[in-house]
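does this look right to u?? zinc ion version
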Amino acid sequence: MSPDDLDPPGFCPQGFWLNERGLPDMDLDAVTKQSVLHAKPDGLILQYGTAGFRTKAEHLDHVMFRMGLLAVLRSKQTKSAIGVMVTASHNPEEDNGVKLVDPLGEMLAASWEEHATCLANAEEEHLPRVLVDISEKAAVDLHQDAFVVIGRDTRPSSERLSQSVIDGVTVLGGQFHDYGLLTTPQLHYMVFCRNSKGQYGKATVEGYYQKLSSAFVELTKQAFCSGDDRRTLRVDCANGIGALKLAEMRHYFSQGLSVQLFNDGTKGKLNHLCGADFVKSHQKPPQGIEMRANERCCSFDGDADRIVYYYHDADGQFHLIDGDKIATLISSFLKELLLEIGDGLSLGVVQTAYANGSSTRYLEEVMKVPVYCTKTGVKHLHHKAQEFDIGVYFEANGHGTVLFSKAAETKIKQLAKESEDEKRKAAKMLESIIDLFNQTIGDAISDMLVIEAILALKGLTVQQWDALYTDLPNRQLKVKVADRQVISTTDAERQVVKPPGLQEAINDLVKKYRLSRAFVRPSGTEDIVRVYAEADSQENTDSLAYEVSLAVFQLAGGIGERPQRGF
Ligand code: NG1
Ligand code: ZN
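got this back:
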């Protein structure tokens, strides 16, 4: 068919979408044919949630194919490389998921989350129409080339599912680079590297290792020349991708830090009785790690974007150091350096409602740092953190990073060159820290290196770090309900708006305890409602959490077994 034979822009009988030159841009016939091979199960409705789509892997083939299609459109619209990550993070091994990564390595824009949901749920026969609708609504320039970068975690289903993403990309004529196995933050890094034309770093795994390791080595130069003996760290890798990547990377920074890997995937199941989510939610050590008294350990989650630390004291008591305490350590170090350079750069900390009340109090009252609370999900924290010269954000579960504004980076670089002695030293440290933090998303490997550097430089033991403040006892529970969307919230998810009566019930329960707080919200990654409670003792916290769970069960359509007392 020559261009002369083609109709004006619009659908042509062959099913092509024609541009104004009469050339086909989206071969909708081919899409329809391919889509049959990635058929949507009848009646399945999925939502692009806190971190993309997540459910049992066997239900995701069509979603993967369609996210390949969507990534092409997003790439054309933004004239940039777009990322697709196949992972379900801390969820069980049988689950999987997919999320798109925007040009600067950040989470997909909210308006495109809606397009993603529409596309994923479209019935087979409506798929071409929905693609055209999205292209029109988002003013996608279909003449543009598209480039998609793809990564996946170690789940058995991930390889096949990422092939379905590739099928989606290629059927719409997109180019792609399949990185294969990557941690989620590595994929975010690759996207930003490509779109910054290499300014952020080299878009290879090697480039990532080199960038982070040289920043770590530079930052810790002074600490390690004095023969420090606390430079061994035990890492629980959740039987996930973190193990592979850390094993590849560790020789790059081995002079400064020796990491011992546990739950490296050679035996155990992904995230099963191990990993950051298990440790944080059960408040106990993972299986499969050998702990020695007062030696610090950390856990990654299944895709290595979260990290929590912990240790056993001499009495065998377990101490968890979660995202809140990580944020506190990092902010106090940054604040000291900012005082040294004395340049009036603003520092802010962003948390969610899950942050322990003690951490918020410590940051505001002792450290005098402004603290903000956003809705759960890194995209909310990330956006808020961008409002500061230096924005520290962490979820209590250990997902977080630090963002430096362009202006702050320029200022720091200038001071590192021009100023004198102490000021220059502080500026140089900040310069290395900018490189060491993943500026796109929370990154367990990068955070681990930052923490290890700070502990070494400050000569802090894990106990001293832990002693910054004492966590209020807290408890998280899950309640099964028929439809979790019956719950809607406001005030950064701290107050329930619907169903009626639930917030009043929570208020009455909270009043019964001292130093208490509780809230509920529908999970964006699991089909459950999450309950959070905090109070003056673990016993009271557990009672409060149980009572609130019961209120949710009764007022929000609980299904299955009623919540039980005792954990
Ligand atoms: P949901 O399932 O929406 O609570 C969980 C975490 C989030 C975030 C996402 C993405 C908690 C309470 N929630 O979201 O913070 O990390 O997973 O992985 O930890
Ligand atoms: Zn994760």
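The radius of gyration is 24 Å. idk if thats expected tbh
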